[in-house]
Design brief:
This is Cytochrome P450. The strands form 3 sheets. The protein has a 5-stranded mixed sheet, covered by helices on one side. A 3-stranded antiparallel sheet has the order 4-10-9. By secondary structure, it is of the alpha+beta class. Helix content is 50%, strand content 9%. The radius of gyration is 21 Å and the shape is globular. It binds protoporphyrin IX containing FE. The site of protoporphyrin IX containing FE has 26 residues, from helix 12, helix 13 and helix 17.
Length: 377
């Protein structure tokens, strides 16, 4: 998408688009405009408030689709579990998970990086935090993939069936948790729901689904897209191998250069808004293209160059403003551990096929490869 974004940033940075259903929306591609929209509360996330209560999708009753004050309440309920300090305490455990996965590969000289490593690592971690069985990870993947890719080739019936299965699964799990409460995050949320006031049953299911989906759909692509960037830039890979202490910077650059989130940062105008001379009408969708903003030459010098020594890069991969990614400390730690462990154990890792043969996932919400087959000696 990058050449298209570049043209838009140059010629049409606040771009009015018509969707197939005839409705109008806007696409924001420059960095400064993106920050402005993300920080302006007139661009609302609350679909229910804007479009009425009969939203088909049960998964919108969470912080990502809420405005203040509901947003603060819903985020506050889970915030403690994701602070940098709490997350740092998980470092050695996450390292253990990464090592175990690489100790148990199907083959000694090759792997499918997504299936065998980049996907299981974050799903194991978020399942443990929430207290859901890690063995159900394939179900979570199936359900959340079809929700995330729903804008593309998933038939409506399959999408609806998966939503139903996911909802039934979570409801059954909550029922079990009510009887046997543990010290995991779901237990805390179930108790908050039972105590009344703090969150409704609908919100409970929606918040947990969001954490499962957001907890792995993006980090898998941070690891996958990050490894791809290193394999495409062998001099950067060699630099990182010789200076492992660059890993923190390297992950920030991977997030900027090949960000995992493409279009999910959408908002709706809650009133008529004059945005730099463009008339955005109440109810119109505004899409902030984070991947484009992060390649904006006005903000980043040599924006198309992948440079892991880039310092203090204020990229937007985790968004900005009140919805700034809650899981950013966790995603960063998982990314750093995953990439450095891979490089330490398989410094000669290579793609099994030509990079142009790799297939990207459909849909516009996340940007990541379906599979990354790699080999090593
Ligand atoms: C929000 C990106 C990993 C949980 C967001 C947003 C972005 C984002 C761009 C803001 C969306 C918007 O403003 O509309 C990413 C990326 C990740 C990642 C690139 C990995 C590299 C995670 C993880 C979790 C998580 C591991 C697990 C807990 C959330 C939640 C929100 C969110 C709960 C909603 C926050 C709110 O609305 O206040 N993420 N995310 N994310 N993310 Fe992440």
């Amino acid at each position: 998408p990058y050449p298209v974004y570049e043209k838009l940033r140059e010629n049409n940075p606040i771009f009015k688009i018509m969707f197939p259903n005839g409705e109008f929306g806007w696409m924001i591609t420059r960095y400064e405009d993106a920050v402005e929209v993300l920080k302006d509360n007139r661009f609302s996330k609350d679909m229910v408030k804007l479009f009425g209560p009969d939203q088909q999708n049960i998964f919108v009753h969470n912080m990502l689709f809420a405005d203040p004050p509901d947003h603060r309440r819903l985020r506050g309920l889970v915030q403690k579990a994701f602070t940098p300090r709490t997350i740092e305490g998980m470092r050695s455990h996450i390292q253990q998970i990464a090592d175990d996965l690489l100790d148990n590969l199907d083959s000694p000289d090759k792997m499918n990086l997504i299936d065998e490593f980049a996907f299981p690592l974050p799903i194991i971690v978020i399942s443990e935090i929430l207290g859901v069985p890690v063995e159900d990870q394939d179900k979570f993947r199936l359900w959340s993939n079809s929700i995330i890719d729903a804008t593309s080739d998933v038939p409506v019936e399959v999408f609806e069936q998966h939503i139903q299965e996911f909802t039934d699964y979570l409801n059954a799990w909550f029922a079990k948790t009510r009887v046997e409460t543990g010290d995991d995050l779901i237990s805390q949320l179930v108790m908050a729901e039972e105590a009344g006031e703090q969150l409704t049953e609908e919100e409970l299911i929606s918040v947990v689904a969001l954490l499962i989906i957001a907890g792995h759909e993006t980090t898998v692509n941070l690891i996958g897209n990050g490894v791809l960037a290193l394999l495409e830039h062998p001099e950067q890979r060699d630099l990182l191998i010789s200076k492992p202490e660059l890993i923190h910077n390297a992950v920030e650059e991977m997030l900027r250069y090949n960000g995992p989130v493409e279009f999910s940062t959408s908002r709706w105008a809650s009133e008529d808004i004059d945005f730099h001379g463009h008339q955005i009408a109440k109810g119109e969708l505004v899409i902030v293209a984070l991947d484009s903003a992060d390649r904006d030459e006005q903000k980043f010098k040599d924006a198309d160059v992948f440079d892991i020594t880039r310092e203090k890069s204020p990229h937007l991969a985790f968004g900005k403003g009140i919805h700034l990614c809650l899981g950013a400390p966790l995603a960063r730690l998982e990314g750093e551990i995953a990439i450095s462990t891979l490089l330490r154990r398989f410094p000669d890792m290579q793609l099994q096929e030509d990079v142009h043969e790799l297939e990207w996932r459909p849909g516009m919400i996340v940007r990541g490869l379906k599979e990354i087959p790699v080999k090593f000696k």
